[in-house]
Every structure is written in C-alpha cells, then in structure tokens.
Amino acid sequence: MSVYKRGYRRYSGPLTGRWARFLVLPRYAWRRLYQQRLVLLLTILAFIWPLLCAGFIYLTNHAELLQGLDRDFREFIQVDGRFFSIFMYVQAGFAVFLAALAGPGLIAPDLANNALPLYFSRPLTRWTYALARLTVLVGMLSIVTWIPGLILFGLQVGLAGGSWFSANWTLGAGMVAGFLMWLLVLSLVAMASSAYVRWKVVAAAVSLAFFFILSGIAEMIDNVLRVRWGHIIDPAWAVNQVWRALLGVEPIEGPGAAASAWALAAIVLLLVVVIERKLRPVEVVS
Amino acid sequence: MNASPVVELENLKVRLGRREILHGITCRLGVSGTGKAVGLLGPNGAGKSTLILTLLGFLRASAGRARILGFDCAHGMGEARSRIGYMPENDAFIGDMTAVAFVRQMAELSGLPPEAALEKAHQVLFHVGLGEARYRELRTYSLGMKQMAKLAQAIVHGPELVVLDEPTNGLDPAARRRMLKLIAEMKNEQGMNVLVCSHLLRDIEQVCDEAVIMKDGAIVHHCNLEEERRSNRSFVELEVTGDDGGLRAALPEIGAEGVPEGLGRWRIVLPPGVEVDAIWRLAGRQNLLVRKLTHRRDTLEEIFLKAMGHIAHTPGEGAASGVAPNVTAS
User: Fold this and answer.
1) What is the pLDDT of residue B31?
2) How far is B94 from chain A (nearest CA, A)?
3) Alpha-carbon gap: B143 to the closest alpha carbon of chain A (Å)
4) Which residues of A are less than 8 Å from B22 in CB distance?
C-alpha cells in the first residue's frame, strides 16, 4: 500500500543500540560533507604529494635507476625520519585547509538553525554529539594524513624488506601518533570556531586565522623579547617539534618536544572548554 | 496500565543566572499512558518554557526535583528521551536537508532502525500535510510548513509523551486549526500523552483535558477542564457606550463579575443559572447603550482571569469544583 494511504501509526518495533545511534550523526555528516565540491577537490589534491612520495620510495629502492646520480645525492635521498617528517608537514598543511573548509559545516548550521534542542531532546548527550562531530572530522582528515602515510610506510617495508621494518617501525608508529595529535588539534579548532561564530564562512576564516595569528604572535614574542620560547604558543611549530622527536629528527631550536606537547595539551583543553560552553541546547543570558 | 504521573514536580526551583525563574513548584500532571493532554498556560515570562526545558533536562534545578514519565530530569534522561518527542518554540531545523532526510535522521537518533525510520518519516510527513513537499529543503519552507516539520520530527518515533512549546505560533487560522486537529488526533487516536505550552487560551481549551496556569514562576491554578466545562459557566464579552463607571459595582447585583478593558469593553462572567438577559437589563438600568454582546460558554478564559488576579472569584464558585487538591505553589 502507498505510504500516503497507510496513515500514521506509532512505531512499536525494536530500537537500535547505543552505538548504532552514535553512528547516525557521522553517517549523515559524511554524506553531506562530500557533496561539497571544494572539499572533494581538496581531498583529491591532497593525494598528489603522497603519490610523489610513493614514486620517491620506489626510486630509492631501485638502485639501478640511481646509478648515474652523484653518490652524495644518493645518500641524501633516504627513506628515514626526515623523509616522513617532510611528508607529514606537507600533508598537515592540506589538513589545515580541509579542516577549515569542512569543519564549520558540521556544527555552525546546527547552531545557526537552533537544531541542538532537537538533537539533545533525543538520547544523545552533548559529549556524544561533540564526539560524533569529532569522529567525522578526524575520519575525513585521516584519509589524507596517516592513512596514506601508513601506505607509504607499508610500501617501503615491502620494497626494503623486514630488516628495514625491524630497524624503523618506530617511524610508522610515530607518524600515526603525530598525525592523530595534529588531527585532534585541527578538528577541535574547527569545531570551537564554528561553535563560537555560528556562520560557516566566518568560522572557516577564524579556523585558519587561529593558526596564522598564533604563529604571528609567537614570532613577535621571540623578536621583541629576544627569546626562543615564544614559539610554544604556535601549534604548528609545537606539533612539528613533537613530530621531530617521534621520528628521531634533529629538533628545531627552541622549547623541547615535552614542552611543546604540554603546550598542545593546553590548547586542546582550552578548545574543549570553548566547545563545552557553546554546545548547549539553550543559551542562558544572565 | 502504568498509572504514574507524566510530570511530577517537588518544590522545583530553577535559577537562570542570578534570577530565580521557578519558585518551588510542586504538582503532579497527567497520568502516563492515558492519551490525555495537559496545557501549560500563562502570560509571557510566566516560566512555562523554563519548566519545559527543565523537564527535558536542558536546565538544572537549583532545588527540588522534577520527574518526567517517572524518570528524574537531572539524571537518567537518556532512557526517558527515547520516549519523548519535543517540538521547540523557535525555528529549529537543518536548513540544507530535505524534510524526509531531516525527519529520518531524527527518527534514527531516537533509536529507529534506518529502514523503519525512512518509512515512518514518509508516513508522518504525509500525516502532517507535508507529503508533497517532503523532498524540498527545509529552508525553502514557509513558517507554517516549518511548524509542521517540527511536529513531524517530534512524533516520528511514536513517543509516549509529546512536548509542544507554542505549537501554533505564527500559524494562519487554517494552519492553526490543522495543528490543533493533529494534536487532538495524537492523543485520541495514537494514545500519546501531550504537554502543550501556550499563551493562547483557545488552543489549550480546545485540545487539553487538564490545564495548569502559571504566573511569575509559580503555578497559580490547576484544573480539570472537563469538569470545568461541565460546570457550564457563562462568559460574556460586552461593549457599551455611555458612562460605565458604575457597572463594576452593579454586576454583583446579578451575581456576576467583570473586568473593564477600556473604551466601554467588558469581560463578564455569569454564575450558573443567570441568563444573558440579566446583562441587558443591568445595562438598561445603568443607562448604557449596548453596542455588542457576545455570549459564549467559555471556561478557561474565566479561570485564567481569576488566576491572573483580574477577578476576585468565580461567580457561583461554591457550585463548581475542579481545583486539583495536589497543587501547591509558593
């Protein structure tokens, strides 16, 4: 019978479990996310660098192709911590733009359209909602960061053999951990800015400005006060310092990896506080 | 049948910032599973929406306790929320979604499996009259259509209790009638309990079985509308020309009470047994020219006027009953 002839009857069937309900938001969000052409285009562009890196790995593992090259150059082009550090730095840049482009579209419209009371009147807490949105962003950014990174790592292991893996497995683990740390920061920045601004375009701009402004302030502190610790407030710098430690690459002059990790933790905490304060079903003006 | 109250409040106090909005309310409203509607009535700022938001767990009580369908509103709302449907007062939707996708998503969030959610989304959109527009994005909807979409998402999962905050806001007369008809169907045909919050007396009177009148953050009256209707009091709207200064004092002569509204307009409550002719005769004695006299059986307006303090008591009050004994308000 046609739906319109059937009439409305109360649902009395079985209900889904907690996890199935949790996955509803990410499922709908993913579908809407890739309907945005810019997001799709940027995601595709983000695969160019990993493809070039894959070519590089292939090249370094085929000595016969490098025979005509200078010996020093051949020693320079190694798949090591420095290689993965460069790979991560480029992909992290793509991730910044992707998060700024896609992130605000997940939360800002809900706030602008006053949809939160509808969500929170259902068996969905504020934290579950935030976690669901975070899952979407981290998942989307993973596609262009640690997943291709891990594929490159696997490619190198496949070409170089088990001995290379035994000697360098920490590179793979460090890369995944480093990327996840960065993705958490990026996603929270995008969520906090869209929770604060509520207007998608402005939220995207605020998301990007967050990194550029902090980087500028850090540079200013260093130059005015003639110190090196100012960079600790620059999340991009701080995460790079942590990555270098994870990948065994020489650190940049300035605060160490541990201090940088603490600075990132503080930023994460601050962003969580902003999200906690802003993601409420009703706004109380005292 | 579970005979627990739909809403149970014990000395409930709610504070927003430094202001106390609800001042220690104690009451039991409705009986769950009976398919009855409770109306929350009161002027703007009376605390109706605050009470609803507290019942939904959006606001924390500063003192006392609130329970909805037997669940504590401060804790344990996870289970209760899958049994509740909520239609907020303001615009609330996801603009770039089609109505069917929006309602389906809301159904899935309430725990319906995806296929059932899709089927129910279609059904409920036809039910509220949005069947032909269900594939349109919500931002293209008119105000009336958005209200209906909000109602659809509130009932799509077949909740035991539907909480409606000002459901007829911004609706034209035809849409308002349709909304009220749908609310009546929800309780009469689907057996849902309904909690309607409104400042429109007519809406509450038309669909509710029980009414609570709030004023300044307290419950000032709680009545069973069915019993009030049976008591059959009469309500008169009168418009006169001439000096009506003595009318208020003269009304008790026939056992009635009235509220002047300016420019010769009056709202008068007649006691049982007194016919409208008495008003004609009284106006004649006062040398007043009657320009308009509307006589209708209206229970809630009279109750509301009394609750708001505009009239001292209901004429012939001794003959009527209906004030719930279990209501206290500080």
Assistant:
1) 85
2) 6
3) 14
4) none
- Quote the minimal CA–CA distance from B17 to chain A in Å: 5
* Token pair in block for residue B315: 């004429």
| Lowest model confidence (mean pLDDT) among A10-14, B118-122, B163-167, B274-278 | B274-278
Q: Is B15 on the interface with A (CB under 8 A)?
A: no
Cα–Cα distance, A215 to B148 (Å, whole number): 49
Q: Determine phi and psi for B266, rounding to 5 degrees.
A: -135, 150
Query: Strand runs (DSSP E) across A174-245, as ranges?
Result: none
For residue B145, the one-letter residue type is: M
- Residue in B58, B88, B112 nearest the CB of A15: B112
Cα torsion angle, B192, B193, B197, B202, sign: positive
Please give the Cα distance from B290 to B122 (Å, whole number): 54
Q: Domain limits of chain A?
A: 36-278
Q: Quote the CA–CA distance of B25 and B138 in Å, as a whole number.
A: 38
What span, in angstroms and rounded, lies between the C-alpha atoms of A26 and A139?
9
Other beta carbons within 10 Å of B85? 27
Residues 6+ away with beta carbon under 8 Å from A90: A49
The full set of domain ranges for chain B reads 5-225, 229-321
Distances (CA, A) of B175 to B130, B180, B209: 12, 9, 22
The complex scores an ipTM of: 0.84
Task: Provide the phi-psi class of B63: left if phi over 0, else alpha when psi is between -120 and 50, else beta.
Answer: beta
Q: Write the DSSP symbol of residue A143.
A: T
Tell me: pLDDT of A211 over 50: yes
Residue A254 has pLDDT above 60, yes or no: yes
Is pLDDT at B321 greater than 50 in this prediction?
no
A12 touches chain B (CB under 8 A): yes
CATH fold group of domain B5-225: Rossmann fold (3.40.50)
Quick check: B225 and B300 in contact, CB under 8 A? yes
CATH domain B229-321 topology = Alpha-Beta Plaits (3.30.70)
Structure-block tokens of residue B322:
């209906």
Examine the pLDDT at B297 and tell me if it is beyond 90.
no
A51/B77 Cα distance (integer angstroms): 50
Q: What is the DSSP letter of A280?
A: -
Cβ distance B59 to A282 less than 8 Å, yes or no, reads yes
Q: What angle do CA B91, B96, B100 make, to 5 degrees?
A: 85
Give me the residues of B, 76-115, that contact A with CB < 8 A: 78-79, 81-82, 84-86, 88, 90-97, 101, 105-113
Q: CA B233 to CA A132: how far, in whole Å?
A: 56
What are residue B218's DSSP bridge partners? Answer: B215
The answer to whether the CB of A111 falls within 8 A of the CB of A46 is no
